[in-house]
Amino acid sequence: MLKLALRLFGHHRAAAVATGLVALVGMALVVAMAALLGTGLSGSTAPADRGFLTQFPLILGGWVVAIVVFAMVSTIGVTLAARSGEIGGLRLIGAAPRQIRVLVSMETLAITAVAALPGLGLGYLLGLLLLSGVRSAGLTAPSTSFAPGIGLPLVGAAVVLLAGVLAAWIGSRGPARRSPVEEESGPRRVRSARPRRIAAIVLLAAGFGSASAVLALPADNIATTGMTGPAVVLCSIGLAILAPELLTAANRIVGRLSRGAKNAEAHLAGVNLRAAPERARPIVTFLTLLVGVSAGTLAMQGIENQHSVPGSAADVLASINYLVVVLISLFMAIALTNNLVAAIGDRRTEFATLSLIGSTVRQIRGMLLRETAAATLLAIVVAVVGSVLCVLPFSIVKTGGPAAAFSVVPFAVSAVFGGGVVLLVTSVAGARVIRAAAVAG
C-alpha cells in the first residue's frame, strides 16, 4: 500500500504540494510553541519567567494544534475532490473504502514526514524570534536564553504527523465511501453529513458556552479573557465546518438574484453556484476561520485595552492575543491561498469548455470573480456575526453594556485583509488558468 501511495505522487503533485505546505507551516508553529515550552521548563530559566514561558505556549499551542488539524482536514478534502476519477478507478478494480482511507493516510504521512525536517528548522527559528520579541517587550528577563532542547520540539513534530494522519483518515471518509458508478442517494448524503454537523454543533455549543460563562465572572478576573479567546476559536471552527449548509442557504438567495441578471458573467456565476456550490467551499471554510478568529480576538483585546489597569496581567495577555492574531492569520492566509490555487486549477476543463462554446476570457474571469465575491461576502458576514456573539458577554462584563462589542475597526480590518487575500489570489491565479484553458480550448 505504501509503494502504491508513493507511486501516485507523480500523478497529483499539486495536491501533494498543497498538503505539504499546510503541514510545513503548521509544524513550524507547533514546534515553535514546543520550543518555548522547553525553554520555560529548562533549568537555566529564571523562576520568575518560568510561569509565563510555560502557560503562554501551552495556551497558544492548543489553539494552533486545533486549527492545524482543521486546516489539514479541509485541505485534504479539497485535494481529494479533484481526485474523484482516480479514487473511482481504484474502487472499480476492487479497492475497499478502508483501503482507500489507508492509502490516503499513508500518502499524507509521507508528505508530512518530508515536511518534518524543514518544519523543525523553521519552528526553532520562529521560537527564537518569539522569545526575542517577548524579551524586548519586557515580559521576561533579558538574561533568559533560548533553551528548547530536542525532546519537546520532536514531540511537537510528532503531534503534527499524527494530526496529518488523523486529518487524512477523516477527510477521506466521504470520497472513499462514494460509489464509483453512481451518485449517492439523498438519505445517504444526510447520514454522511451527520458526524460533521454533530461536530460543528458540539464546537459551537462549547464556544458559546465558554463565552457566556464570562457573565458570571468579575470584570477584573483574568479568566474573562482566557475564556473568551478559546470561545472565538471554537465558534469560528464550528461555523467553518458548516460551510456546505451555509452555501446551500445562500445559494437560494443568489439564485433568485441571478435569474434577473442582464450580463453573462452574473448569469454564469449564479448557475455555477447553484449547480456546484462545493467549488466555493474552500473560500467559505478558510475565510470564516480567518476572519472569525482575527476579528473576535482584536475586538476582545480592544475592549481589554480600554478598561485594563496599565502594568497589569492584561498587558501580558494583550501581547499573547495580538500574537495569536498574527500567527493564525498568516497560517490561514497561506492555507486559504493554497486551497484557492488548487481549486481554481482543478477547473481548467470547465474554463476550456466555456471557451469552446463562445465565452470570452473576460466573461469567464468576471464569472469567477462574482462567484468568489459572493462566497467571500457570505464568509465575512457569518464570521463577524459569530465573533460579535462571542465578544458580547465580554463587553457586558468589562463595560457594563454591549456597545463595545460592535466596534467597527477590528471587524473591518479582518474583513479587508481576508477578503483582499481571496480576491487577489483569485484574480492572479484565475487569470493564469483561464488564459491557459482558453488556448487549450
Mind explaining what this structure looks like?
This protein has 441 residues and is mainly alpha-helical. It has two domains: 183 residues, no CATH class; 254 residues, no CATH class. The chain contains 16 helices and no strands. About 2% of the residues have low confidence.
Summarize the structure.
The chain contains 16 helices and no strands.
What key attributes describe this structure?
mainly alpha; globular
Unreliable runs: 183-191
Instruction: Report the sheet-strand fraction.
Output: under 5%
- The Rg value, from CA coordinates, equals 23 Å
How many H/I helical runs?
A: 16
- N-to-C span: 37 Å
The strand count comes to 0
SSE order = HHHHHHHHHHHHHHHH
What is the approximate shape? globular
The largest sheet is:
none
Classification by helices and strands: mainly alpha
